[in-house]
Structure formats: C-alpha cells, structure tokens
# Entry
Amino acid sequence: LVHAENVCKSFRQGDQVIQALRGISLDIYRGEYLSIMGPSGSGKSTLFNMIGALDRPTAGEITIQGVAIPALASRELSYFRCRYIGYVFQSYNLIPSLSALENVSLPAIFLGLAPAEAQAAAMEALEYVGLGNRHSHRPGELSGGQQQRVAIARALVNKPAILLADEPTANLDFNTGAAIIKVFKDLSVDRGVTVISATHDHKMLANSDRVVWIKSGEVERIRTKAEL
Amino acid sequence: LVHAENVCKSFRQGDQVIQALRGISLDIYRGEYLSIMGPSGSGKSTLFNMIGALDRPTAGEITIQGVAIPALASRELSYFRCRYIGYVFQSYNLIPSLSALENVSLPAIFLGLAPAEAQAAAMEALEYVGLGNRHSHRPGELSGGQQQRVAIARALVNKPAILLADEPTANLDFNTGAAIIKVFKDLSVDRGVTVISATHDHKMLANSDRVVWIKSGEVERIRTKAEL
Ligand SMILES: Nc1ncnc2c1ncn2[C@@H]1O[C@H](COP(=O)(O)OP(=O)(O)OP(=O)(O)O)[C@@H](O)[C@H]1O
Ligand SMILES: Nc1ncnc2c1ncn2[C@@H]1O[C@H](COP(=O)(O)OP(=O)(O)OP(=O)(O)O)[C@@H](O)[C@H]1O
Ligand SMILES: [Mg+2]
Ligand SMILES: [Mg+2]
# Structure
C-alpha cells in the first residue's frame, strides 16, 4: 500500500543541518499492523509526516497505492488525507476552544457530512474509546490520557484505510493502553485497516505483524511477528 | 515535607460535577522518591496541581514544611514555587517562540539571576539531559521526547528541593527513559531532593522508595519498596 524509496529529510537551522531521515526504504502492506520503534530523535515522527503527506521529503519518493503523494494538487491532497488517513499526532493537536465532540466531528464535516451526521459519527467514535460521557468537555478539562483518547477518536471518525498513530499509548496506563491497542488490532484484522504506529510501548510488539526499528534516520532492522 | 489532609477537588461544568479528588490524605517525606500510579483520569495531575500550589483544593488542606500554601501572598507564592519546586508538566508547557535555552533559563531569570548566569545554568541543565547541542532549537524543531527532556531540564535549573514530574518518561524510549529515571534517583539519593512522579512507567517502581496507587480520586494503596 505504501512504498517509500530512499526517503531523506533534512532540516536546516542557520549553520546546522539535522539529517532526520537518511534514505528510508520500506514497503507497508495493506491490512498489516506495523509498529515503528526507535530511540527518541531517531526519525519516527518525521517518517510519519512523510507517509501522511504532511511534509515533503528532501529526496526520495513516497507513493500510496502507486500515487506519488506530493504530485497531488493541494485540494485533492487534503481530501485524500481526510478520506483515507486517520492521524493520531504525538502532541494530539486538539483545538483548545472546541469540545471533544467538536474536535472529533471536524474531519467528518470537512469530508462533507451534514453537522448532525458528523456529530453522530463523532459520538460513536468517542464512545468507542470510552469517553462518550465527556463529549462536552474541552481538552483543558480532560486528563492527559483522556485527551489522547479524543485524538484517537478523531483519527477513527472517518473510518480510515490507514491509521497513522504516533505514540498513541504514551500517556495511558497499562489497561487503558491495552484496550486501545486492541481497538487498533481489531481494525486491522476485522476491517483491513493498515495500522502504522510509532511507539515506545512494548505491549505493541505482540500485536504487530511486523516491527521496524529506526535509528538515526535509517532502518536498523525489520522483524516479522514470527521472528520476534 | 508535604502533608495532604483530606484533599478534595471538584470541577463544575454546567450541570456536570467531576470529583477529581475525593479526600486524599498523604504524607510525603523529605528526600524520598515517591511514584504515583493510577489509571487515566484517576486524579494524578490534579493532585500534582494541589501539591505544586498551581490550583486550590475544593476542600481539605495541603502544607509544605508546615506552611499552608494557599495562605501565601501571590508574590511570595510565585517565589516559593520557583525557588523550591521544579515542575515537569505532562504537556511540557514549553514556550513555542523561545529556544530550548531560553525556555530552560526562564525560572533562573525569574529567581533573579543575571542573564549570563541564567544561561550558564540552563546550558548545564540541557547538557545533563543530553540536549546541549540542540539549545538553539525551538520546541517545534525538536522531537516529542526531546521536548520532554527540555521540560525536565527546566525543572532542574534552579536545583529544586522538590521535583514534581508528571509522566516524565511517557514519550521516551526505554534507554532514554531509564537514563532520566537515574537522573531523578541520583537527585534523591545524592542531593536529598524529594522526587514525586506521576507515571505509567513500570521502570519507575524499582527506583521508588514508595508507590501510591490512586483510583477515582482516592488513595487505593501505598507500598514501600520492600513490599513491592
Ligand atoms: N522542524 C524541525 N527542525 C529541525 N529539526 C527537526 C525538526 N523536526 C524534527 N527535527 C529533528 O529531527 C530528528 C528526528 O525527529 P523526530 O521527531 O522524527 O524523532 P522521533 O523519532 O519521533 O523522536 P521521539 O521518540 O522523541 O518522538 C530529531 O533530532 C529532531 O530534533
Ligand atoms: N479543568 C477541569 N475541568 C473538568 N474536569 C477536569 C479538569 N481537570 C481535570 N478534570 C477531570 O478530573 C479527572 C482527573 O483528571 P487528572 O488530569 O487528574 O487525571 P490523571 O490521573 O492525571 O490522568 P492521565 O493519566 O490521563 O493523565 C478526570 O476525569 C479529568 O477529566
Ligand atoms: Mg516522535
Ligand atoms: Mg495526568
């Protein structure tokens, strides 16, 4: 489904150049559950931004279903992302002035659903992550882990083909984290959603079809579940 | 050092009342390393806000060294917090427009140090967490775990008597997290700093003198290291 070919990304700050990605080549198959692990600063979120078409590589190529994502026009790209990819950002990126329900409704509204339909879909997603009773609260009125779950609900509301989850259980206790991992696994097994998750959470390993370890912007090794 | 007596905290939103803390009573001793664990939404950050004098209890009392914190005048309170308590917030609360060095310098400047002294102390703290070479970068130019470590450096810059760390290793990989836990342990053992850390990270248990489990706003149980 996703093909990365020698993807590089550099950031330049004055005289300093940070090589965040140094030639990542990787194929990600439809319906698989792939975990990406690696030390802090190794390039996981940067790679996510590439796959999710939120940023452009400095060099190399990313295609999703054979389509070179940067080649899409801006409006097409926004629609494509909203329709097919659910994002759980590492910092959640919730809108502070909106309630949980309004935050989760946004992708559905952007996709063209009527407000009542968008709200119904958002409520369903919030209940799925155990936060239906907190729908009227703004992010500042929710715990860290509750905010994280709102971000997860938002990623699920449009029933995406690809779920990009950046450290989705970082602020969750063991049981709440395990419940979320199960949600992801069920999406992968039952609905064929391709789950790609950056994580430091070793609970993810048992549920992954493959695990990719990244170090200093390069693929260090890839293991299938059988090999773990 | 810290005495909490039947501390309650409620949040009211329209018709809904959330009882975040339901009568927490707890003594925290000088120089100990105390971990607070509990499910998402159980009240850990809320309790931190009480101990750290960032919010007031609805009922009950908090004292630090016998001083009832809410009784202090505002300017005294700000100075007390800045001088004695280092905070690592769950959402880091870094200022996006400032560099890592400027963020970490702020508490030292607020305490009255000259800018050059504040910068030197900030650089030392950044190097201590392995980020001296990234001092000129703003939070948006750092990875999630790197931002977390900047927040930790900021908490350490004034060499606090109490370190309040809310989920300080949530976004760190195993090795980076273990290195930070060691920093905290060394502060506790070598310098008598009282370390109070909310965490979902089981690596913390081996290093804690005591662990308090919180559930639905109440102390569920407390165990010493020997009892674990
Ligand atoms: N906008 C930027 N400008 C400069 N450097 C950046 C920028 N974004 C990321 N970097 C750097 O690129 C490297 C990779 O960052 P990335 O966020 O991908 O790491 P990560 O693996 O997600 O880390 P973590 O586990 O801490 O979240 C890091 O050294 C980071 O500081
Ligand atoms: N400002 C607020 N208004 C309303 N409810 C709040 C507010 N702050 C916290 N709460 C609620 O109080 C409860 C306790 O929140 P708290 O942030 O202390 O939990 P926590 O144990 O830190 O959770 P996590 O592990 O997810 O960070 C939660 O149900 C939360 O939604
Ligand atoms: Mg990251
Ligand atoms: Mg919390």
